[in-house]
Design goal:
By secondary structure, the protein is mostly helical. The chain has 5 helices and no strands.
Length: 112
C-alpha cells in the first residue's frame, strides 16, 4: 500500500470517528432512564419507551466498540503497522480495507 492509499483510509477513519462521536452525543437522551409517570404514560407506552431505551443503549455500546477499533487503526497508521494482519502479519488486501479500514485481520485469519 502506498502513502496516498494510507492517507485516503486515514481520512475515512477520521470521518467515521467524528460521525460516531456526534451520534453518541445526540443519542444521550434516548439512553436516559425511563421515568415512571403513570398519569401521562400508560403501561404499554412505558414498555415501548423502555424497549427504545434498550435499543439506544445497545447502539451506543456498538459505537463504543467501533470507536475503539478506529482508535486502534489510527494507532497502527501512526506506528507504520497499518495494513498488516495482527495474527499472521501478512498484508491485508486494500479492497478489504476500503470496505472497513478498521479491520485488523486478513480474510484468512478473520474466518479462522
Amino acid at each position: 500500500m502506498n502513502n496516498k492509499q494510507i492517507e485516503q483510509l486515514k481520512c475515512v477513519l477520521l470521518n467515521s470517528q467524528k460521525e460516531l462521536v456526534v451520534l453518541q452525543k445526540s443519542s444521550a437522551t434516548a439512553r436516559a432512564p425511563v421515568r415512571l409517570d403513570q398519569q401521562s404514560v400508560g403501561r404499554v407506552s412505558r414498555i415501548d419507551a423502555m424497549q427504545q431505551q434498550a435499543m439506544a443503549q445497545a447502539q451506543d455500546r456498538q459505537r463504543g466498540v467501533d470507536l475503539g477499533r478506529i482508535k486502534q487503526a489510527l494507532r497502527r497508521i501512526k506506528n507504520n503497522d497499518f495494513g498488516y494482519c495482527l495474527s499472521c502479519e501478512e498484508k491485508i488486501a486494500f479492497n478489504r480495507l476500503l470496505i472497513d479500514p478498521s479491520v485488523s485481520h486478513c480474510i484468512k485469519c478473520a474466518g479462522a
